[in-house]
User: Fold these one by one.
Assistant:
Number 1:
Amino acid sequence: HTDIPDKCAVRPQTEHMNEVYKPLASASCNAAAGTEDGLNNFATPNPTVPNAPAGTPRHPASLGGSTGGGAAIPQPHSNPASEVPSPAEMEPDRPIGYGAFGVVWSVTDPRDGRKVALKKMPNVFQNLVSCKRVFRELRMLCFFKHDNVLSALDILQPPQIDCFEEIYVITELMQSDLHKVIVSPQPLTTDHIKVFLYQILRGLKYLHSAGILHRDIKPGNLLVNSNCLLKICDFGLARVEEPDPSRHMTQEVVTQYYRAPEVLMGCQHYTSSIDVWSVGCIFAELLGRRILFQAQSPIQQLDLITDLLGTPPLSAMASACEGARAHILRGTHKPPSLSVLYMLSDGATHEAVHLLCRMLVFDPAKRISGSDALSHPYLDEGRLRYHTCMCKCCYSVPSGRVYTRDFEPPADRPFSHNYEQSMHSVWQGKELIHRFITEHQQGKRVPLCINPQSAAFKTFIR
Ligand SMILES: [Zn+2]
């Protein structure tokens, strides 16, 4: 018997009800594999299951997406935590996104009724490369502790190792992303742009301080909710910074429109400055509400960049491959035309264009860092607004606001990827990931697993 509504795609793994702290050693195969056994292992959640902490912010789904609606810039007197759940939170489980490396669903956590995002990471164990990639993403999601970076709230309990094929991660649910906001008709004021850009750079500073390059910063990977809170997501292409410049790094990174010139020119080694270039493109896109460099091919992409920045000096192409350098030198000499950036919109003030021009620098060595960009005066208002009424690091007392000591904290330690060295085969990877998930959950809330009886499940597995 169960009183879990069938529409829930996840349910408590009640095999654990009386032994929450013990790893699941004897469970039969997950019913995702279609076995009857899987269905009988679940029951009602224990009433003593801890609820989400009081005051956990609820995010009405009124921003962007198919529902339209507007994003209200939070005012200092508003308190996001006091908002009541909107009718949208009663919506049944449904898909909300499809990435290169998985599907994301909006689901209800049966332990507390909260809407959360459930991401399926498929084809994990096809080969060693995918195994390492997924494990890296999983470990990063569990490592992150920053309000502007999406992190894992939970991982669904894996079945026993022979049946372990897919990984399901639960993250906070966000209503929209910057791509949807930019193409929507809703107004995007200078205040919006400042608070969005501030949070992008705040999250990026944290990632870079942990030694992580995101490598696919684009509007669709910047999740936002109706309170304008922003979180960087999708770490499918992220990797640890390579300190050795003689080590080759893949060129297959970053959606073309946001790809830095050094990557377009085939350099073999790049740094976190490729993410800053992407942020510059997004900043211009927020101002102009159109993609800054929208080219049909990587070569045209480079041409559009040099149309704006002018022909780069040889010194800025030191790391470029021979063919790319020849392409630039073959063309006519172009003068820079940065003044066109003032025509992006009324929001393109001197301050805005100044910061934009520090990000859109051809030579990665001369491009501003994410951390330094945060010191630019353009972001002062965004910082004030964020820490006055949006953040979790500062708080109000009757006499005023108590601000945190570090507005843009770095990571407390670098992300380590040493574990990858001990992964030599798919089976070994499977064991490592299985152990990681099981250990990650020990001592935490009642574990969840996929609910194969849910109405949404059939659609979900397709
Ligand atoms: Zn704060």
Number 2:
Amino acid sequence: MSEKCIGCGIIKQNQNESELGYCRDLNQDYCQRCFRIMHYNDPLIDTRELVSFKEMHNYLDETDNLLIALVVDIMSVSSFLKSDYKQLIKRHPFVILINKIDLLPENANMEKVEANLLELIKEEGWLTADLKGIYLCHHRDKTFIDLFKDFLRENEYQKLIFMGSFNAGKTSLIRLLSDNKQLLNSYYPCTTLALQSVKDDEFEYLDSPGLIDEGNIMMRLDLNELKNLDFKKRIKAKIYQLYSAQSYFIADFLRLDAVSKRGSLVFYLPNNLDIKRVKQENAHRNEAILLKEQEYDIYEFKDCHNEDYEIAGLGFIAVRNIAQMMLKLPKGTRIIKRGNLL
Ligand SMILES: Nc1nc2c(ncn2[C@@H]2O[C@H](COP(=O)(O)OP(=O)(O)OP(=O)(O)O)[C@@H](O)[C@H]2O)c(=O)[nH]1
Ligand SMILES: [Mg+2]
């Protein structure tokens, strides 16, 4: 019987129900939190402030012959690449796995996406001698399994640690590659809480807790709000042409104002985020009804010709020919202006 929960990796305990790792019976494989997520979609404990990375840092310091698989959510790719996670790699060889590409719209030109991603990776200084490969993949991508395992065999990598922001899909990729479904994945940030090793005949895959990205909008929403966002289905782009000053209310926590004579906005966001468009002159009346009360940050941009604005943890907006744009987002959420991804 393992002393750790086989879902999230935390050491089990039967003393304190409100703390991590609680199991009524230590013989159970899963802690109560994992059990509740699996069977009732109810996470019980918000783990966003509770994860520890000490074990992971020690492991990276002490282990040789290790390949780091950096998992990056394509919907937050710029946010990740701009972060200071580079320091974490230390002396280890690494690969970048750009995950969740199944979310991109069906008509996305993947060659162009690949070229644009490579440009971003280069621009942000990740193209170092330690970078051994870049793969685009998703959690059901069977062709990725063969491609990636061939690469591992050819280069004699046997031990891999999967690292990256919370929710990037580390656990899901390990489940795919190892065909071991006992590790728990879920859309609640910080599902995995400790290192966990899974082996198949050839490789050892280590799962790790997701790195905390304070600028990710998921840090600003409560768990029930996250439950209601559809991060699973392929995104259907929502396209708006603009001929005047307009305001957009997106769900109840984002506002975008744009002034343009002939421009466009294309939203690549979870499909079920409701977007309401109103004339800007009426926006102040709508705001009181449509935006929930919380602290917001306001960003202003001018002369947006043709670029993307990535909202960490949510998706991005492709903006064309907009003279002025204002974005109002939950306080602390990061927004990144970059070249077009699609
Ligand atoms: N559409 C899509 N969803 C994915 C993919 N990979 C993971 N997900 C979903 O994204 C959410 C997070 O996946 P996890 O595998 O738990 O992510 P993680 O990086 O292990 O997250 P933490 O353990 O919190 O650090 C889950 O709801 C998954 O179903 C993917 O390739 N495509
Ligand atoms: Mg995980």
